[in-house]
Structure formats: C-alpha cells, structure tokens
Design goal:
This is HD domain-containing protein. By secondary structure, the protein is mostly helical. Helix content is about 65%, strand content about 0%. Bound molecules: fe (ii) ion (2 copies).
Length: about 180
C-alpha cells in the first residue's frame, strides 16, 4: 500500500508552486517515461514515478529583464541539490515512508551531473531510470520546460498514472502469492 500517491503530491500547493517553474508538462511527461523505464529496468514503479515527477522541483527562476538568463543559470544553478531537499521535506510531511523518501531524494540529486566536476557518477538502477526519463523528454533549447498543460488535463494524467502504478503493484503481489 502506497502512503503517498502522485495525486497527493499534485494536490499540494508547495509542489505546484515549485513544479510550475520548470513546467508541469515536463514533470508529467518525465513521470510517464519513468513508469515505462522502471518496468524495463525492474525498478519500483512508484519510487521512479514520484522521483521523476518531482525531479525539477528545485529550480530557481533565473530571470533578467523578463527573460530566462541561461548564462546566469549555468553559473549558479543547484536545482538538483535544492530539489532533493525540497522533495524530501514534502514527502516526509505527506507521510511517505522514510526509506522511500531517501531513495527518491537521492534519485533527484543525481538526475543530472551538471553540478559535479567531471561527472561520471555510478548510478543505482532507480537513479538511472529517473535520469533517462528526464533525458527522454528533453528538447533542444530547453523547450520542454515551456510546454503548457491545463490543470484539468494534468489531473487526469496523474490519476491515470496512479492507477497504472496500483495495477502494477497488484500484479506483482499476485505473482508473488502464486
Ligand atoms: Fe533537471
Ligand atoms: Fe528535467
């Protein structure tokens, strides 16, 4: 039984505020990619989807004269670190299992190696799934951050993904009990 659903995260005003900075469309799209990849890599679908949905929650808005300043962003960004901490705080507040909250926070921390000199991280399968899911939705020039989605459509997709996760859990439990 999941303690926190994707719907619970989406209903939270803190999530909405910070996810909107990097785009709700990108968060949902990455979460769908994570579901598919989690099954492929035999990773817990619930952890992968929640980490993917929250992976860019650490963004700051690097605006200068009304435009996103990529130079300023590249120089000062720590969104993976900030997002990891924000997501962990949020998950614990909503009652997430502590081990799960840690796994999700670490997957968010390592979804990009842009802040680590030299890169080359040894990722766990969950961390790899979240990084690949993010990459799968990326578009040149960061266009994936600007795609729009209505709150109504977002809520429908999130409910759909929650059902897919529940169904996956049920079928896994069934296989284990036979
Ligand atoms: Fe990111
Ligand atoms: Fe991203």
């Amino acid at each position: 039984m999941r303690k926190v659903s994707l719907g619970d995260l989406f209903a939270n005003s803190y999530t909405r505020k910070y996810i909107s900075r990097s785009g709700l469309h990108h968060a949902i799209s990455t979460a769908f990619h994570a579901f598919r990849l989690a099954k492929q890599y035999n990773v817990d679908v619930d952890l992968a989807v929640k980490a993917a949905f929250l992976h860019d929650i650490g963004h700051y808005t690097w605006y200068r004269n009304g435009e996103w300043d990529f130079e300023l962003y590249k120089k000062n960004d720590i969104h993976a670190i900030k997002g990891s901490e924000r997501a962990h705080k949020l998950l614990i507040k909503l009652g997430e299992d502590r081990e799960n909250a840690k796994e999700i926070a670490l997957a968010i921390l390592f979804h990009t190696d842009s802040f680590i000199p030299g890169g080359n991280l040894q990722l766990t399968p969950l961390q790899k799934v979240v990084a690949l899911a993010d990459e799968a939705d990326e578009e040149p020039g960061g266009k994936h951050h600007y795609k729009k989605i209505s709150a109504e459509k977002a809520a429908k997709l999130i409910a759909k993904l929650d059902k897919k996760i529940e169904a996956e859990y049920e079928s896994t439990t069934l296989k284990q009990s036979v």
